Amino acid sequence: MSGRAQEPSDLRSRLSRRRLLAATAALAGLPGCAGLDARLAGLFGFATDSDEAWTVYRARHEDTLIELARTFRLGYVEFQAANPGVDPWLPGEGTELRVPTLHLLPDGPRRGILVNVGDMRVYHFAREDAAPRHYPIGIGREGHDTPLGSTRVVRKRENPTWYPPASVRREKPDLPRAVPPGPDNPLGSHALYLAWPQYLVHGTNIPWSVGRRQSNGCIRLYPEDIAELYAATPVGTPVTVVDQPVKAQWLGGRLWVEAHPTLAQANEIEETGRFTPELDTLELARVLAVAGAHGDAVDLDRVEQVLVERRGYPVAVTPPLSA
Predict the structure, then answer these.
(1) Is 54 helix (H, G, I), strand (E, B) or coil?
(2) What's residue 292's pLDDT?
C-alpha cells in the first residue's frame, strides 16, 4: 500500500464504487464466494508469497511467437496478449517474453471435457478426484462460432476422413466430397465426434491455427495434444462448452483474477496485434461477488488493470488472508 494518507473524498469515492458494484452483482444474480480447492491449488502451483503466474523467456533471433506458443503449449492469441506490442514474426534477440504458466479453472462441471472459448482452452477431468489436464484450442471464426452448451462424445476415429459440410463446400466449391487421412486433412490424426452434428474435437494439419478463431466451429488442438486427449477420452464422455474470458478464484488464501481478450478483441489481435481496451463493470462486479465477505481486501485498481489489459494469466488481487 502507498504511504500517502487517503483524502476523505478519495475514501468516499472508493466506498461508493464498492457499494455500486455490490448492488450490480446482487441485481445480476452473480455467484458468491468460491472456496479454495486444495487439490487444484496444488496442481496449479500457486504460492501465497508471489504475485507472478508467468515466467520470462529471452527470445533468440530465429524465434517467432507462433512457434514459441506451441513450444510452451499456449495458443497464439494468448501468447500475443501476454506480450502486447511484440512483433510476432520478429520478437528480437534478447526480448523478454512473458510466458503464462498457470490458469484458473472456468466455472462448469468438474467431469469429462470442459471447453472455455473465452480462454481458448479445454480442460479434461478424467476422474473427479484427480486434477485436470488442459490444452490450448482453436475455435470457430466469426460467423461460424463454436456453440455453447452441453453435449457428449458419441464416437472416436483415428486417422479420420473429413467430409466437408455443405456450408464449407459453398464457400470452397473445389473441395472434394471426402478428404482421406493425410497431410491435407484438416482433422489431423484424431477426432472425437460430438452429439452436435458436424461439430468435432480434433487435431489439425495447420498447428499455427491453435489459439485462434480459424475453424468452422469445431474445436482443434495441436497434434500432440489431441493424441493425448483422444487416448484418455472414452465414448460417452460429457462435454460442456462455456464462454468465460474472465475467471476469479480463491487459491492459497488469495483471490486471483485471470482475464483474456473477448472474442471481438481476439479478432483485433489477429488483424493488428493489439486490441481496444475497455472495462466491463459487470465483470468487475463478478470479481467482488467471488470475493464475498472479503471484498474490502480487494485491490480494485489492480482488478481494473487486469480487466483492461487482459494479459491471460492470473494476478493476485488481495493480500494473503487467513481462513
Answers:
(1) strand
(2) 92
pLDDT of residue 171: 83
The single residue of 124, 134, 190, 202 carrying the catalytic annotation is 202
Q: Spell out the alpha helix ranges (H) of 159-299.
A: 166-171, 223-232, 263-272, 281-291
pLDDT, average across residues 66-85: 95
Average pLDDT value for residue range 235-246 = 97
Q: Which of 103, 190, 218, 260 is catalytic?
A: 218
The domains found in the chain, sorted by start residue, are 19-40+244-316 (no CATH), 54-100 (3.10.350.10), 112-242 (2.40.440.10)
Sign of the alpha-carbon torsion through 30, 35, 40, 42: positive
Q: Which residues contact 243 (CB under 8 A, 6 or more apart)?
A: 116, 117, 118, 148, 263
Inter-residue contact 33 to 293 (CB < 8 Å): yes
Identify the pLDDT of residue 130. 80
Active site residue 218: yes
Q: Which residues pair with 155 in a beta bridge?
A: 193
CA–CA separation, 210 vs 97, rounded Å?
19
- What average pLDDT does range 296-313 have in this prediction? 96
The closest of 29, 55, 31, 100 to 250, measured between CA atoms, is 31
pTM of the full structure: 0.85
Note the pLDDT of residue 286.
92
Q: 202 an active-site residue? A: yes
The grid coordinates listed for 225 are: 495434444
Q: Does the pLDDT value for residue 257 go beyond 60?
A: yes
Q: What angle do CA 268, 118, 204 make, to 5 degrees?
A: 80
In this prediction, residue 42 has a pLDDT band, given cuts at 50, 70 and 90, of very low
